[in-house]
């Protein structure tokens, strides 16, 4: 067993108070998230950015000499509340009645915009913590010394939370909000304009988040990435407590804060792992969370996934012609190197697009065809990358076998994750996949610490020790991956003609092959059933399909293809895999690409990848550093106006032209009602 | 308990196709279905009637597997299916339609029917299931064509299901049940929201295509039930009030008092 350091009561108390302090920030963040979800079914990924905005506003107010900490504590949240209200009005309102997926996508786009806007205004240098004046002193209670600020945060958090609770319980506003979270339509039929309340609810949530941000800024430095670092724990809090439950947000926030604090203190190598395990455990045993209502039904029921399938532009014949033509163009593209473009265009950009296209294709199988919105798809991509590299490092440096190993490992983990996650549906499924991905991402980072802790024990017992599987931050690399079994020409080194490399064709062939296999699956009875599940899982099961089994199989196939994408990427990355391969932002990006192109078509997401990466390249090469923000804006516009993606644009244009006298166009879902 | 004329206890002779034994389902304090013992005979057309909240749809959910019973069991063709999942009950031969139209709106009419037919033809290799083109199965195509013709939607297979008129969608729904080739067909208010003309056409369709099967029907239209049913079961507050041929049920005093308000019929 591990030896725990000696613990005194004072130290325990110290950690407990630290935990409560951090927990209060989570409470403020999670309460808003939870209320917003409860009332509007909106999962606001940009909530962490609202917290960051609160912190930055506070910094701006104090450094500009407009006011001190106390002024900032009042003014910054009000400013953020206005921004939150505007956000709801302008971007989220058009999406009510669609599947909650679109809120996730939209707010993910908003994250990109906020992050770049903050960088543009305040730069990338972190700011020192706010001067909290009299609160920065220490105070001794019962012989135990601690900064006054910690007590202040706890007391203030408690007061704000109690205030928010009173608003929800005792005011007309609160009554409407609570009623709305139970049955929106009923409230509407009572003659209450609930839409007006939505803006207020959003502003209220933004206000709470910003208070959290100011409090945060009094304790820690304020810098970029702040919003991203708090949003995942906040989701864990919300899911733990129960989506839509205010009490749950409070209890969950404090619990996560304290648990994190103790884990960091006592078992630092497990930091970051424990909360995810906690979340997965709770979701599996009690999916509705600690305080959630068991009758909470899948909020996805009213909404609809807007796939591009059935937009009816491409007949099978035309699709084959265009696809074949595309592959032919890609096959001869390297011939243009040095004539039409330099080798970077083909060997980097096109290869990037192919690999991301494969990743997006894999997501489309589960998201576009089966209706399973996986927020953690990066897990399989990352695992594929690691497994491919590890196979080459420890077993054989053969590219072919290593890629197969990557595919198999990704498929295996997809089976396990799918087995556990597919019991829960809708938003819970999305959350649990995110939790699994984050669990593995932390594991990749914490591996050296884990080894240092566990290996001596294993060694003393005469058991084999754990080899360096991830090398933490540094990543792990295979020196040379070859085309042969143990020797042979190195991958990436075989030049067919000048700058034309063999690996280009290897990747092209594997990606095209993956597309053809996926197309076959979708055109077979298996694929029909997946689409039936997407349309109505209940109906599919009453036709006699074991829908759980079909969903799992789709998930495994998808995981395997994502694993291949990750493996290919690792080989392109000089045979290295690093924790960056498991970054949750990649999950977001691949979702963006899938939707951008048009999900439920297989080729759409690949076009989306091409569009996304080309735009990124265009912006970067023109010296626009805020490319993420620009992409965010493009993406937000797409989610609102072209939800079926790029491939639906021709039919959209056609509809516009025909629609002068026509009835509603075919296949257009009723988006207004829910 | 069942006070109406019970002389035709086992319809058509042999064993009952479907039996519920002490079937009970509670939601908290509420007992939605209370200790029900129902027997449905081979080839029988049985209607379930009762006021709102009588437990009709809950009973359907218990038989089809959407809900598990709190107590008691559902026996189908001699096998206790109470703990089976919905798709397993479909495999045993229980098919159902829904109160609210439930077809695959984003798919074509043909694809809808083919999915149902495909579910019924299960003896395929996993490889074929995953990699052979869905258009290349002759038996599947025949069956799909046949069902489309029987529900009068032949020639409209390419239309997207969500664009069908209401009545056509209800027909498609019946087609889905038919294509799975069930022994027992459960129809939950198949004519709800239809005009008199559509109702007549739909009942004709049901009689036509499901004539030789065992049918369990929930329906509010009393006249329709009286005409179509072999026997009727009346539920009230989760309990069985009476079961018997239409005439006997109509004359039953308890039924008249509890449900029909006396003298409606």
UniProtKB/TrEMBL annotation, chain A:
Family in the record: Belongs to the binding-protein-dependent transport system permease family. LivHM subfamily.
Gene Ontology biological process terms in this record: amino acid transport
Stored Pfam families: BPD_transp_2 (PF02653)
Membrane topology (UniProt): Multi-pass membrane protein
Name assigned to this protein: Amino acid/amide ABC transporter membrane protein 1, HAAT family /amino acid/amide ABC transporter membrane protein 2, HAAT family
One of the record's GO cellular component terms: plasma membrane
Annotated localization: Cell membrane
Molecular functions per Gene Ontology: branched-chain amino acid transmembrane transporter activity
Keyword field: Amino-acid transport, Cell membrane, Membrane, Transmembrane, Transmembrane helix, Transport
Secretion signal, residue range per the UniProt entry: none
From TrEMBL, chain B:
Record PROSITE patterns: ABC_TRANSPORTER_1, ABC_TRANSPORTER_2
CDD domains referenced in this protein's UniProt entry, alphabetically: ABC_Mj1267_LivG_branched
Keyword terms of this UniProt record: Amino-acid transport, ATP-binding, Nucleotide-binding, Transport
BP-aspect Gene Ontology terms: L-amino acid transport
Domain ABC transporter: 18-262
Family that this chain belongs to: Belongs to the ABC transporter superfamily.
Protein function: Probable component of a branched-chain amino-acid transport system.
PANTHER family (alphabetical): HIGH-AFFINITY BRANCHED-CHAIN AMINO ACID TRANSPORT ATP-BINDING PROTEIN LIVF (PTHR43820)
Protein's UniProt name: Probable branched-chain amino acid transport ATP-binding protein LivG
Annotated organism of origin: Haloarchaeobius iranensis
